Structure formats: structure tokens, C-alpha cells
Amino acid sequence: MGTLETLLCCIQVYIRRVRMGLDMMNVGSSVVGVTTQISVQPLLHKAICAEFERHENGEGDNEGAPLSTSPDTRPSRPTRKLPQRASTRSVTQHPLSPGSVTSTSHSTQPSPLQSPARHSIPSTSQPQAPPEPRPRTLARTQEVTRNKSKSKDRRSIKRSHNATAPPTLAFNYRPQVTNPALQVSDLPSSRMDFESEDLPAAGGRWIGKLQKRVYHMPSLEELKDKGFKLFAWDGITPHALTDSEGRIITYFAGIPKGDASWPAVTSGADKFMNKMHLRGHEQSAFTPEQEAGRRGDFVALACGVSHGGGQRLPGNLVHDQPDRREILDLLLENEDIRRIAGFQSSAFAYCAPKVYEVYKTNLDALFTHDKTLRANFSNSIFPATTFNLGPVTITLEHTDHGNVAYGLCALTALGDYDPKLGGHLILFDLGLIIEFPPGSTILLPSSVLRHGNCRIQDGETRRSIAQYCAGGLFRWVRYGFKGDKDISKSQKRKFDGDNDERTKEALGLFSKLTDLAADQRSVFSR
């Protein structure tokens, strides 16, 4: 089958899967919401205004991690066998069971190509002595060695670019708007005293604003003493937080309704991540930065597509340590983790359809333009993933400033801890403490909302899976797959617009609670 036919085949498969995909959502259930008196606009405006400062300073969105497009980098993971692409004939026309959409994995691996054995005829002539090597100067010898090393690196990078990998057409993952889960007239919500305009984005609307680093995380009691309100969430019932204008700014997706296997899925993912954590320590696979970053003292492994790294163009996040690459491969191929990734993507499309459409449009263009970029999961729209392996994943107050300013980050909590006593999600800008039980999922604009976790009890464990998108990817697409140094100043001003226009455009992507069903139909009925 030709390349074009294969791509079309994959697109049809993904579309069919996703049109039945909201079985993963809480079908037939009402989604609770909390409305705030705060508007997100000021924070978003600040973040948009500050983007130019970071971008003009040449800061990448990869937070220091090397990219495949950076000089002298190696493949981000070992060459993997290409999962067999399903034929459209094999797609069932019957409704999928809950969780089956996101649990479809690349289970079958093709056997490597076998070249026929070569039979040589023994030579009957006398072997000739090799010619005497010509003497070389020391400088020439060193030059040859360097050239060989560079050539080897180039071949290695080329192999990674041409390497077989999961299909990258996950961006045709489209929920079905006729699903009962989209009937949200009684969507529970909580209105917060918050203005969406206040969200701090960096200039250009592409990314958030780097916040001052915090080194201390207050306890639950300390937060209560400061006036923070506790939101007792069961981790199951969907719930929306809205700003004073009714815009959905945070979504508690919970778990897939009616899927009795979900506790086993999240438990299996947690156990496997713990296994990979122990394996990495035994093999000394983690760097000091990965074991203790700016977000807290726990092992965090990022993979996927990001932006930055000196070349100021998109690339695959690179892990040149073989044991660490293998650990990431195993994490990405784990069936339980894949199902969680798929549910996160479905929840994103459900609560923020207009933002989802922007992701799809930009990422479709990006992955079509650059065939070397590799998606992590075939059932998720997010281009990047971080595995917070713990064993005590408690994040300090922070923002994920490199992410899309108006985008959402999907977080799934895992581990063994009492959510009544610790592990809460803290939203500092909202003055809110949310109980975050293991196995549940929350989506929030992590680029602009300051967030963190409460400490858990001694002897407890906590891990998490996060999916997100670097804002620099969208800037790259908007600039015509060029950096800002490759376009004229007038073109840059035209693409960026002014801060007020960018803020207004970004705010328009947040769905209001009253308009959510209409937004879903508008986006997914096309």
C-alpha cells in the first residue's frame, strides 16, 4: 500500500474510533460546575503581554531539555518496530465498550525485514596483502576521527527521523456530538470570584508567563488559615469551574462512567510507573535535574514534541541515555497508560471544543509539514507527556509557563494516598483546595493558573501523568514554519497583532457553560 493510501486509511480508522469515543466520558450523567466571581481576562492579558519578553530572549519551551533539532543530539528513543496500521475493514461498526476507544493499542508488531542469506564461494586464489597504510599527521588523524564521529551522529539522527514509530495522525480524534454526555443543561458548576482576563500569559498569546519560583509548599491547615476554601470532590462526578463570565477555566473530568475496569487501569499504570522508577534508579538512568526539578523533588520524565533548544524550531525531546530511552518506550507502550492518555484527550475535547479545534488545526499542519516529529500516543491530541514517577509527586507552587497560554493541561493522579489528608490540587489564584483522589483526571490552564499539591502522609505514594502542548509550536506554524528571525518585522507584527486583540481572541476560545453544547456541535458536527 502506498504512503498516501496508508495515511488515508489511518485517518479513517481514527475518525471511526473517535466518533464512538465519548463512551469514555460520563455518558448520561450530569456534570457539576462551580462558578466563580473572578474573570480570567486580566491574568491572560498579563501572560500574553509577557510572551515577547521570553521569546525575544531566545527562551525555548522545552525548559532546557535537548531537542532532536538541536546540534549534536541523538534520537529521543530507540528505534521501535512500527505498529501495524489497522485496515478500515477491521474497524467494528458496533458501539465500543467504555474505555475501548482509548485502550486500542499497537498490540501487534511486524517482524523485522529478513534479508535472504548470502552464500559466498570460497576464493581459491591466494589472498593479497593489504597495502601499506600511508603515514598521517596527528592533526589529520584527529580530523578523521571527528568526521567519523559526526557522520555517526548524523546517521543516528537520520535513523531516528526515519525510525518507525506510532502513527502521528492522532489529531483526527473527534468526539461524537450526539452522545448523551454532551447534553449539559444541568452541568454542575461552581462560579469563582475570578476574571479570566487576569490570567498571566506572555506576549504573543502563545505561552504563559514564568512565575517566581517557590521553595515551600504550605500544609493543608496553613492554607485553610490563609482563607483557602476546601472543595470536597469525590474524583468521579464531573464538575466545572467557571469565571465570573461563565467561562469554563478548569474541568474535573473524573473517571469514565460505567467502566468497571478503570480502577484496574489506574492501579496497573501506577504499579508500572513505580516499577520503571525503581528500574531507573538501579540503572542510574535519571539525571539530577530529573530527580529534583523546579516543580518538586520527584522523578519527572518528559517526552514528545516541544520547541526551543537553541535551534528555535520544533523537535522531539531527546533522551540519549539508553536505559532511560528504554524506560520511556515501555511507559509509552503500556496499555493502561495509553487508556489514560486517551481519556485525557477525550475529556479535553469535551470541555474545551474550540481550544481543541485550534490544537487540531495547528498540530495537523505541524506534523504534516515535518515528518520527523513523533506523537506519543495514537489516541491523544496532546504532543507532549510528562511521567511524574514519584515516588512522592508533590509539586511546589508553579505555572507551566511554556505551555499554550489558553490551553489546558490534563492531569491524572495515581498512587496510594488518602485524598482527604493530602495530595490536594491547590489553585492559588482561585484560593481553592481541591481533593484529588487517585485515578481521577483534572484539566486546567496550567500555563497561567498557579497550582501545586498538598503534602501527603508519611509512607504514602503519589504519581501522575500530565499531557500538554508547548505554545512555541503554534507560533512556529503561525509564522509559516519559520522562526521570528526568518520573517520581517512587519510580518511578525501582522501575525502577532496587539496584546488586546490577542487577549480577546484567546478569551473567545474558552467555552461558556451555557454555550458548551452549541460549541461542541459547531466543532464536531463538521
From TrEMBL:
Q: Give the source's domain of life in one word.
A: Eukaryota
The biased composition feature labelled Basic residues covers 147-161
Q: For the region Disordered, what residue ranges are annotated?
A: 55-171
Q: Which organism is it from?
A: Hypsizygus marmoreus
- UniProt lists compositionally biased (Polar residues) regions at 85-114
The family database entries (Gene3D superfamilies) matched by this protein are listed as: 3.60.130.30
Question: What name does UniProt use for this protein?
Answer: Uncharacterized protein
